[in-house]
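Our consortium's second objective concerns turning raw sequence data into structural hypotheses that experimental partners can test. To show how far this objective has progressed, the report includes one record in full. It was chosen at random from the queue rather than selected for favorable results. The single chain below, 185 residues long, was entered without modification.
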Amino acid sequence: MELTGRVALITGGTRMGAVVGTELARDGADIALVYRSSRGEAEETAAAVRSFGRRALVLQADLQEPEACERVIDETVDGLGRLDVLLNMASVYHRTPLDDITLEQWDAQLAVDLRAAWLCGRAAVPHMRRLRGGRIINVASISGRTVHATSSPAYGSAKAGVIQLTKSCAVALAPHVRVNAYLPG
């Protein structure tokens, strides 16, 4: 996909999202970055994006809140004029043994990693269809396919769900909106 003049929204726009955003800007994309609490890092990434002559938008949101998912899509389109690429990278991680996982940790993991990917994707699709194309990239993890002694059951379960969500959406939205997953690890 040619990125010049395109707009990419990255949820979880810090750490790995910062690297991805900077590289997409280097290739010509304008970038919207969503952060929950790491404003400073998101602003540093936005400065890097702007250093390539691209536009950057920094959005604060807690993607555990369903309305925040739709809001970041709308603010990206309002602020940057369109949405071509959605990278669902937001995640929480608690290295908590099965016996010690709280209901709040379990719910937060699934809300951010899985439900937010679905809600952001659902909100993005009408904008992408208007453009007659788009890309949704869901960042899962090898932990969604394998289990290790130190694996977090909540994280692995959420990422397994992301993998299945990706497959379902890829079939439902083809051929105009392409949906893929990336599994680091």
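The partners drew two points from this record. The beta strands are 7-11, 30-35, 56-60, 85-88, 134-139, 177-182. The chain has a mean pLDDT of 95. Both points have been shared with the crystallography group to help prioritize constructs.
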